[in-house]
Amino acid sequence: MEKKKSLQDNLKFVIPINIIIIGYLFFFSSRLWMPVGSDVSFYTRLGVAQEWKDREITVIRWDYCEADRSMEIELDIQNKSFDGNNKYVASARDINEGFIDISKVVEEPDWIIIKLSDIPKRWSEISLRLGMTEDDDEPCKIYTNILKVNHVEQLGQDDIEGYRIQRFNLEISNYEKEMKKNQKEIDKTQKTNDNITQEIRRLEQNKKNETDQQKNETDEIISNARSQITMNNTAVQELEQKNTEIQKRIEKVQIQIEDLKNGG
């Protein structure tokens, strides 16, 4: 009886200790088995300018090639201060693995392409920092993560003209997406107007069975409906004008691509 009680007392101490040990093993080994990207949060949206020291920094693309464990980050930089300082110091690091090898493929006053090499195999979140100097304590911070980065099979172009053509093609692709979005809104608005028109007809037909007061109320509804159609038509015209302008821009970019291909 005493041995049984002693065993029970020992178990009261052993079980909590084992739970603690298992917990520590769970915590320290989690990075070995947890899905990569399960705890990522930071991401800088492509095509959205962010303000930094009188400059607008826009990420044009952030591509990742898993095969050779490298990345390319393409940035548009608009210096609104016109101070002539168009050289930037860049660094990159993974949230867990630390600093990453970095080089500049293209560096122009308003256009930079940065290459990251030897990306950690189990990377999850990477930050790129641009500074005016090495010790800039207020750098521009740009982020991507394993869930959001654009995966590609191959990186790199033969020369700067190749990178320009790549940039122009991406610009055209973004224009086409914008046009498609606008057209979708046009179609939706026109469908709404068709539904409103049908409802106006129904209301007009029902007026013959209404009292004078009811007719007045119906007329007010119809008037508001027609005003809505007018506003919708104006919105459609504005979207169509935008698409016309976008199409002109696409044609201009296509000309630039042809010039580059022809050695212009």
Number of helical regions: 3
The topology string of helices and strands comes to HEEEEEEEEEEHH
Residue-averaged pLDDT: 88
Counted beta strands? 10
Separation, N- and C-terminal Cα atoms = 98 Å
Q: Helicity level, as a percent range?
A: 40-55%
The computed structural class is alpha+beta
Shape: elongated
The major β-sheet equals: 6 strands, mixed
Are there runs of 5+ residues with pLDDT below 50, and where?
20-39
Radius of gyration: 30 Å
Measured by DSSP, the beta-strand proportion falls in 15-25%
Describe the protein in words.
This protein has 264 residues and is an alpha+beta fold. The chain has helices at residues 2-33, 160-206, 212-261, and strands at 50-52, 55-65, 70-79, 89-94, 98-99, 101-108, 111-117, 125-131, 140-145, 150-151. The strands form 2 sheets. Strands 1, 2, 3, 6, 7 and 10 form a 6-stranded mixed beta sheet that branches. A hairpin with an 8-residue loop joins strand 8 (125-131) and strand 9 (140-145).
Summary tags:
3 helices, 4-stranded antiparallel beta sheet, alpha+beta, 264 residues, 6-stranded mixed beta sheet
Task: Write a brief caption for the model.
This protein is of the alpha+beta class. Helices cover 49% and strands 23% of the residues.
List the helices and strands and how they pair.
Blueprint: H1 2-33, E1 50-52, E2 55-65, E3 70-79, E4 89-94, E5 98-99, E6 101-108, E7 111-117, E8 125-131, E9 140-145, E10 150-151, H2 160-206, H3 212-261
Parallel strand pairs: 2-10
Antiparallel strand pairs: 1-2, 2-3, 3-7, 4-5, 4-8, 6-7, 8-9
Helix pairs in contact: 2-3
